[in-house]
Amino acid sequence: MTTASVRKAVEATLESICNRTPAYGELTKRFGPVFFSIARMRDALLKQGVRVPEIESARFAAGTPVLVGRDLSPWVEDFILSAKTLFPVLSEVLDLETDVSDCLLDHFENPDSVLGLVQARIEGDWKHFENTSVRPDTVLPTTLLYISEIVSVPVLSAIVETLGKPLSSLTWEHGHCPVCGSSPTISLLSPKEVTDLDSLVGGGGKKFLHCSQCGHDWRFKRNVCAACGNDDSETREILYDEETRSERVEACHKCGKYCLNIDLRECDPQTHLDAVQIGLIHLDIHAHDKKLTPMVSTLWNNFE
């Protein structure tokens, strides 16, 4: 998607959320600019040119994502540019004091620091965020993690765009992203397809997982838990509201994890998969009440 098409998808998605659940209006207004800024930054990076990582077939076949364990220094200037561009928006959204924001930006403009944070996010090294001291009196590890994730998104999604067909032609059957190794925050069932034969509408319903970090979508089995690989129907459950059956929770009682799901056959196929999660907090609460934990902790599903 281009910036214009992403903006259109975000605006339509947030408007739909507000119309259906006005209580989410403040959240959509507050975080909408973040989605727009990410799209603009991604397109700017693509326009200037982003280095394309090599897909090492042996590692990939063994289940190792493209960027996991890889030296990320070739993209360090891209991460720094992303930080500089997004920080004004992030500072406002997170309501950061000017001195705190300046201190954080200095940290993200340091090549070693920003690479360390991005690498820690990709490798799942949460201790790194607890041990990184920027402003320990005001900046929580969770805030540092969130900022690192947002700064990384435009760069990683631009990298995904450059991989294109070489990536889509490879087989990947794991529940973590084949590019950056992150887990999905949401899955989707593909929209109906219009065939060339008399404009017949059919098909759709293929399941894809949506990466929480780089935004890549990859095909996955419908009857399998992405967190643990459980395919036992007796220990998996679908939770939903009767009025909005196209939006639901895929729960696994074997591992205690869940992932949101949206059926694009029953709603706007141009739904923005990151923005739509703002309007699904009631499902996160329902899953939380059942003692389930999300595959990925976000601003929307963390109730601790």
Automatic annotation (TrEMBL):
Q: Which organism is it from?
A: Pseudodesulfovibrio sediminis
Alphabetical list of SUPFAM superfamilies matching this protein: FdhE-like
Q: Which domain of life is it from?
A: Bacteria
Spell out the protein name for this chain: Formate dehydrogenase formation protein FdhE
InterPro entries for this protein: FdhE-like_sf, Formate_DH_accessory
Signal peptide from the UniProt entry: none
Q: What is the lineage of its organism?
A: Bacteria, Pseudomonadati, Thermodesulfobacteriota, Desulfovibrionia, Desulfovibrionales
PANTHER family found in the cross-reference section: PROTEIN FDHE (PTHR37689)
